[in-house]
């Protein structure tokens, strides 16, 4: 798509839209759908998507509540690709959660599922946009919806068998859209990507390799961690305005704008709730 001169009509900049948004433009994230992964340098908070992948969300909460991940590690780090954690020996047996799950590659509906869609083409999906704060793709009739692999995506690793995943999770370090619909995506990082990026790249004899201190459902530990998160409501007119502002940046610094944004370049604003 050719670049265009900046539009002359007034368009608010993204930071203006976000900073002036009323409280009604923000959605509080249910703490029962937030996973806290505690690493050596700090906590990573992940919002789980129970709408698009309910079985995986339920299973990882069961695994967290039985302390399956405590003492395991983020055993695989591929620069610019993913950080993968769990049981690298594949021998630990859960007592409540399942070791293997049927993949949830897309969420199927009988009727069209409405999303806040982006204009323009996408090389990996007929339609892309946002649903409940998550970046998603859809088929042409909008009866299949799936989460896309943007930075901070939380997904379930697997072997060659499509239903071979169940306990080994990964976090994407950059967009990896070619993985879409090949693997179950069921969450996104709300806060703490800096701790993922600080993980060791290769094992060292000096210290344990990327230990996972613990994994908890945030609701279960509210007596020690009172973190509350809000995300911008992606079903609002304000979010549509934010998409337009990121598509054609109106700030004076920009002399040319591409009149284009892909689904991974639209970051859904996230903040800690202040009380």
Task: Give structural notes.
This protein is of the alpha+beta class. The protein has a single domain, classed as Cyclophilin-like (Cyclophilin, Beta Barrel). The chain is 12% helix and 27% strand. The chain is built from four helices and 18 strands. The protein has helices at 14-19, 54-65, 193-197, 237-247; strands spanning 4-5, 26-28, 34-39, 42-48, 73-78, 82-86, 107-108, 116-117, 127-131, 134-138, 144-147, 153-156, 169-172, 185-191, 214-217, 229-232, 256-257, 270-272. The protein has an eight-stranded antiparallel sheet. Strands 7-11-10-9-8 form a five-stranded antiparallel sheet, with no helix packed on it. The protein has a three-stranded antiparallel sheet with strand order 2-16-18, with no helix packed on it. A hairpin with a 5-residue loop joins β10 (134-138) and β11. The longest helix has 12 residues, at 54-65. The termini are far apart. The mean pLDDT is 94.
Q: Secondary-structure blueprint of this entry?
A:
Layout: E1 4-5, H1 14-19, E2 26-28, E3 34-39, E4 42-48, H2 54-65, E5 73-78, E6 82-86, E7 107-108, E8 116-117, E9 127-131, E10 134-138, E11 144-147, E12 153-156, E13 169-172, E14 185-191, H3 193-197, E15 214-217, E16 229-232, H4 237-247, E17 256-257, E18 270-272
Antiparallel strand pairs: 1-17, 2-16, 3-4, 3-15, 4-14, 5-6, 6-13, 7-11, 8-9, 9-10, 10-11, 12-13, 12-14, 16-18
């Amino acid at each position: 798509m050719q670049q265009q001169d900046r539009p002359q009509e007034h368009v608010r900049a993204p930071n203006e839209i976000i900073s002036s948004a009323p409280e009604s433009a923000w959605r509080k994230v249910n703490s029962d759908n937030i996973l806290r992964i505690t690493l050596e340098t700090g906590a990573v908070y992940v919002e789980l998507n129970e709408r698009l992948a309910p079985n995986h969300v339920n299973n990882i909460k069961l695994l967290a509540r039985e302390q399956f991940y405590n003492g395991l590690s983020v055993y695989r780090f591929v620069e610019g690709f993913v950080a993968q954690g769990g049981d690298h020996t594949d021998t630990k047996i859960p007592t409540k959660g399942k070791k293997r799950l049927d993949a949830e590659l897309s969420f199927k509906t009988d009727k069209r599922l409405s999303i806040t869609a982006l204009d323009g083409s996408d090389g990996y999906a007929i339609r892309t946009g946002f649903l409940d704060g998550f970046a998603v793709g859809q088929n042409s009739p909008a009866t299949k919806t799936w989460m896309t692999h943007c930075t901070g995506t939380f997904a379930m690793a697997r072997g060659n068998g499509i239903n071979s995943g169940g306990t080994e999770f990964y976090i994407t370090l950059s967009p990896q859209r070619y993985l879409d619909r090949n693997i179950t995506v069921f969450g996104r990082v709300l806060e703490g990507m800096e701790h993922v990026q600080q993980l060791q790249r290769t094992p060292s004899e000096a210290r344990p390799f990327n230990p996972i201190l613990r994994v908890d459902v945030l609701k279960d530990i509210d007596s020690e961690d009172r973190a509350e998160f809000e995300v911008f409501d992606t079903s609002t007119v304000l979010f549509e305005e934010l998409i337009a502002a990121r598509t054609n940046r109106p700030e004076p610094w920009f002399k040319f704008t591409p009149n284009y944004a892909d689904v991974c370049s639209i970051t859904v604003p996230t903040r800690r709730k202040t009380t």
